[in-house]
Amino acid sequence: MYTEDTIAAISTALGTGGIGIVRISGDKAFDIADRIFKGRTGFKSLKSHTINYGKIVDPESGEVLDEVLVAKMNKPRTYTREDVVEINCHGGPVVVRRVLELVLRGGARLAEPGEFTKRAFLNGRIDLSQAEAVVDLINAKTDEGTRAAIGQLEGRLSAKIREARNSLIDLIAHIEVTVDYPEHDIEEITGRMVYNQIRAIRQRLADIAKDFDRGRIIREGISVVIVGRPNVGKSSLLNELAGKNRAIVTDIPGTTRDIIEEYINIKGIPVRIIDTAGIRETEDKVEKIGVERAEKAIENADLVIMMVDASCGLTEEDIRIFMRIRKKKHIIMINKIDIAETEAVDHIRDQLDDENIITTSVKNGTGLDRLEDMIEELFVEGSVGSGDGVIITNIRHKDLIDKAIFSIDQAIGSYDGGMPLDCLTIDIRDAAEYLGQITGETVSDDVIEKIFSSFCVGK
Ligand SMILES: Nc1nc2c(ncn2[C@@H]2O[C@H](COP(=O)(O)OP(=O)(O)OP(=O)(O)O)[C@@H](O)[C@H]2O)c(=O)[nH]1
Ligand SMILES: [Mg+2]
Question: Which of 52, 116, 132, 294 has an alpha carbon 20 to 30 Å from 301's alpha carbon atom?
Fold first, then answer.
């Protein structure tokens, strides 16, 4: 087992809170706690996995630093698989820091970012992809993101990857046996078996990789910009989606002059929604800058919602804006249908002849459900969290799966090209190696360093 010095850190967020937790992990954790904790009995006689009331006292000055609850956890049933002590202090930042200082003086070292989780990994309690899920979980912004991270933390991705990797290793063993006993028909039978199995493994990996974009969107969200001529109802839409009067709405064209952003949640997808100044030729200096910003926002967006006013019919300006956004992922919203003739709406529809057209009245709230559905359809194939719940969100994992698939394709190519079986083993071995890097079985130290440095201190 991996052993190291004893580490400590403040595990709760900095600032004033109800409680603040100092966490200690390592062989000296109980000795250190014993010296500074004064309870009904000594620390060492406390039972494991219990929470106990007492005081933290500076052993040198005798000063009482805080009244605390202390959790004692004997290894190996702990987060790090080492002895762990958690001191629950009253939340003031000064108190918690002084308790930590006392612990450090007692012989612990300040933990590096992610070091507790790193120990959980090095001591074999979790694998690398599970450790990475801890970061995702901490940073998750939506329920869906949280669910994806939990799935990974529970080891669902690891199980699939490990299964695929083991199958590859089995295949290598088969091939090697065959090569050692080179009777022709055995080689042929093994060859077909290897070929079929490797294709099945490839398919499984491709299925996992397919979900990556979905995973990324769940985690990072998308940016959506609302554009259109002045007065079509862009700011009204922003306000409606955000559920508050964020932007000024008037019947005067040119009301919005600048970019206005809000963060909202559409069907579990975090969305940064941007309202812009109505696009038109203008001599007004401020409005002109606003229009330029709107055009810039189009470039950077994942999705453009272009609104047109059903009651005015299409204008040249509308067509110009449409030509500009047509190549991007977009939704056309024919708005104000409450005051427009049906024929007029149909006419606009025919003129634009676009797949993603919806008709709405932001004023009456009609058609907005359809807008949300369409956003979901455009970015999320199938419902999120469906199937067995394995969603990869991590670019490192995606990269490695892609590399493994590439190596498998090389092996398949060799087989199709009539190469002898043992030529396939090099590529199969590479594929297994890449998969091992996801779970951490074959990963190098600097990759591990890099992953854990993205954690916060105390986790
Ligand atoms: N009848 C009707 N009026 C609407 C609808 N949506 C918005 N409006 C009105 O249209 C006017 C302009 O709305 P805004 O949301 O300010 O339009 P905008 O596109 O942001 O305008 P600019 O900021 O000038 O570019 C306001 O009077 C709204 O109340 C709708 O669906 N039906
Ligand atoms: Mg506006």
Answer: 132
- 175 inside domain: yes
> ω into residue 76 within 30 of 0, thus cis?
yes
Residues 249-267 have pLDDT tens digits of 999 999 999 999 998 988 8
Are 242 and 366 part of one and the same domain? yes
CATH code for the domain of 19: 3.30.1360.120
Asked if 251 and 365 sit in the same domain, the reply is: yes
- At position 233, the amino acid (one-letter code) is G
The residues facing 301 across adjacent strands are: none
Query: Where does ligand 1 bind, in terms of residues with CB under 6 Å?
Result: 228, 230-236, 249-251, 253-256, 277-278, 335-336, 338-339, 361-363
Question: What residue's CA is closest to ligand 1, atom 6?
Answer: 233
In-domain check, residue 183? yes
**Closest residue (by CA) to atom 7 of ligand 1?**
233
pLDDT tens sequence across 82-112 = 999 999 998 678 889 999 999 999 999 999 8
Cβ pair 373, 398 in contact under 8 A: no
**Total structural domains in the chain?**
3
321: nearest Cα among 310, 305, 343, 341:
305
CA pair distance 300, 191, nearest whole angstrom: 50
Stated pTM of the model: 0.64
